[in-house]
Design brief:
9 helices; homodimer; globular; Glutaredoxin; 4 strands; 4-stranded mixed sheet; alpha+beta
Chain lengths: 196, 196
């Protein structure tokens, strides 16, 4: 069964997914549909404030956990804490919508997280998009212009509504039929379920 | 290296740990120290309210995820949602302190979660403790009397302080040297780390 991946650039743990998803797809021979959405819009509705000061221990833990799990997957070591939260969260994902429409989402997804977590260039920023477009042979001007069109926003909203309808409350999320799996650490559970 | 398990009866995901920890210890040949503590006291300080109404999607997900992961581990299927939150949270853990002092914590830990998640008897309740004591050949009267002593409360507080000092913010948590691992789904990471 197909896996629908609801992905939101700006989520921290998604670094792990961004850097391993292509290999996982190849190795497991699974079909994954990418739906870039706004986890921020959904979390706002849930009154979920990421990284509040009284949760400092939890935040410190999160960065260390990401670092350790990256090592466990054999991924390059991220520079943590990475710049957070994103100033241009929606822009990062609007570019994702365009990339998805043009068939290069997985490339953008991986490259933008590499630039963000390995090179310290915040996703959604000019510096990040420049570097990503250069690396992928895309035109910065064309991509950023397309990201500003109503079509990009419409696609983003539609995906966010679909995510909400599927019960998504965090990112990354993986939907298989009626089953929701939340978190990079549930990707393997989603794959196992997709084979049943 | 030794693994210190900070365990708090009342946590939902801990059902998975309670039902598999004994087997994991035997199979992996690891040394685990049990420290029953109050995750509730720590979460209160973090203003963390479990299960708020606006997070209904997340709560629904949690029960389903526990159910699926239980199946993945080959554990008996829990009756979800289990009674929650516990009315006698501290009592459930005070009994844990006594059991730990007397060397039968792992038995209590597993039995109380079985009674709670499989038979619907809330941990910390008379019905739960009765069934657990009967199954383990312990005296309900002796155990519940000991759980009311200042020594039980002192041990509970000391463990909660130690948990806080180790950066613990949720349960179950596993500490290996200076490294903290949070969640049943990080037990394997903790074990891998304990071998380095």
């Amino acid at each position: 069964m197909k896996i629908t991946a609801y992905l939101s650039i700006g989520s921290t743990y998604t670094f792990l997914t961004a850097l391993r998803l292509r290999d996982v797809i190849d190795r497991e021979g699974i079909t994954v549909e990418f739906r870039p959405f706004s986890v921020r819009a959904i979390m706002r509705e849930m009154n979920n404030i990421p990284f509040p000061p009284e949760k400092e221990a939890k935040v410190r833990y999160m960065w260390r956990d990401i670092e350790r799990r990256a090592a466990g997957y054999g991924l390059p070591s991220p520079k943590v804490p990475a710049p957070y939260p994103l100033q241009d969260f929606d822009r990062a994902n609007h570019v994702g919508i365009i990339a998805e429409q043009q068939g290069w989402y997985i490339d953008y997804f991986e490259a933008t997280y590499r630039a963000w977590f390995l090179d310290g260039l915040e996703a959604g920023s000019d510096a990040n998009i420049h570097q990503v477009c250069q690396g992928l042979g895309r035109s910065f001007d064309d991509v950023t212009a397309a990201a500003l069109t109503p079509e990009a926003e419409a696609g983003y909203r539609a995906n966010t509504e679909a995510a909400k309808a599927a019960g998504v409350f965090g990112a990354p999320s993986f939907v298989v039929g009626d089953e929701l799996f939340w978190g990079d650490d549930r990707l393997e559970d989603a794959i196992a379920f997709s084979r049943r």
